[in-house]
Amino acid sequence: MDVSGKKVSVLGGAKSGIAAATLLRKRGAAVLVSELGPIGSGAKQLLEDLNIHYEEEGHSDRVYDADLCVISPGIPPGARVVKTMQERGIAIYSEIEIAALFCRARVVGITGTDGKTTTATLIHRICEADGLLHGYRAYSVGNIGIPFSSIVQEMAPGDVAVVELSSYQLERCFTFRPDVAVITNITPDHLDRYEGDMNRYAAAKFRIYQNQGERDTLIYNDDDSLLREHFAADSAKFSFQRVPFGMARNAEGEGCGRTVFLDGDTVVFCSPAGEEKVVETADFLKESFRGRHNIYNVLAAVAASRALGINAEVVREVLSTFSGVEHRQELVLTLNGSGWINDSKATNLNAMRQALESAPGRVILIAGGRDKGNDYATIAELVRKKVVLIVAIGESRAKLVSAFDGFVPVNPADSLNDAVLIARNAVKPSETVLFSPGCASFDMFENFEDRGRQFKQCVQQLPSC
Questions:
Q1: Are the C-beta atoms of 78 and 147 separated by less than 8 Å?
Q2: Is CB count within 10 Å lower at the N or C end of the chain?
């Protein structure tokens, strides 16, 4: 796309919007940034320096004087400004789509309900290590926190862009084509946005492969029933190479069956050349990186790395030193024999389930926030077995009380600090305090990172209380 001289409206003045606006302006577009709330002073100065027009505290009719629009992933499809754009025939793109137009690097795209960040981080670190040996650079961008647009112009042919992708970001991608795509899993999430329709949610995720061709690779979790059935239903329609992974060899498949699988305690990569033992689970599972779900993340990362042609020795070395990602089952403190775990990144029930299954001993669970249509009955039995107390915070406090009171004590708290103090007074040695909200953070915090940092700050102050 040649954007020189085109008028572009960017809806949203946060990180991704500012990055897209900057990229487009440098490519010769006339850009207007329109933000429903305030725009930060630093962002304003940058926009002014680049001669980018902006407005805040609402969208005016100026946004419709545009050849195309770039939209923040947080703006819902039903917003009035979006509907008016569509009525006027203005094409709407995501920041990911815009950045990809100017990307010269190889692209690895990762989506799924859970495991995106950990899998993307693993792949990025493996590519970094391999890049040092072979003279290319690896970048980690997208939903992981760094806008793709902010550094796409630095990328050269041969480099690797590891792009974490939410369903929101994929909704407005039309030509985006990753060389390697990964789908970690698809379980209920964001159903408030998709009107309770899992098919609509899954369809957004499947946009990751919509432009892939025979030179490209799609990696997917074959133990996820939705994914397995989707890719088995009409295999002839997929021209790209499919690489399924799972916990065990698929005896029904031809040859090796699954391409990456667990054989006992060994991760095995299978190709036409035969089977290759890549890494032992003992080499990467540790206190800070444990659980069945993390084995899945490793299987996906191994598959992506091998699709990129990275040597198994490099993969093995990186995995053996990996200690997890911040805000995902992160051990913050051990106090009087009890572990305190920050799992703020758990914004849905499946992530909460994974954390509960992995947490050692009996658990005091701090949970709650902005509910996204959670059905707590799906984890009721696990909670009954593992949890001794739920401390409920945020907008969903009443729903948590209603769901669990009667077979697990539920204690509402007015703030995160109060929740931590309630847990401190209740926890016993050998029990675990697990902060795994299972909800969005926007009722009380800027984002899940802010929520996790505040939890860690509260916990780190406990020894002096």
A1: no
A2: C
Of the candidate CATH numbers 3.40.50.300, 2.40.160.20, 3.40.50.720, 3.40.50.1100, the domain formed by 7-95 belongs to 3.40.50.720
Residue found under tokens 């850009």: 31
Overall pTM surpassing 0.90 (yes/no): no
Residues 264, 300 contacting (CB under 8 angstroms) = no
CATH superfamily for 103-321 is Mur-like, catalytic domain (3.40.1190.10)
The upper half-sphere exposure of residue 127, i.e. CA atoms within 13 Å in the direction of its Cβ, equals 28
pLDDT per residue of the chain (465 residues) written in tens, 0 to 9: 899 999 999 999 999 999 999 999 999 999 999 999 999 999 999 999 999 999 999 999 999 999 999 999 989 889 999 999 999 999 999 999 999 999 999 999 999 999 999 999 999 999 999 999 999 999 999 998 899 999 999 999 999 999 999 999 999 999 999 999 999 999 887 767 877 789 999 999 999 999 999 999 999 999 999 999 999 876 778 889 999 999 988 744 444 456 899 999 999 999 888 899 999 999 999 888 988 999 999 999 999 999 999 999 999 999 999 988 889 889 999 999 999 999 999 999 989 999 999 899 999 999 999 998 889 999 999 999 999 999 999 999 999 999 998 889 999 999 999 999 999 999 999 999 999 999 999 899 999 999 999 999 999 998 755
* Domain positions in the chain: 7-95, 103-321, 330-464
CA distance 4 to 341: 50
- CATH fold of 330-464, please? Protein-Tyrosine Phosphatase; Chain A (3.90.190)
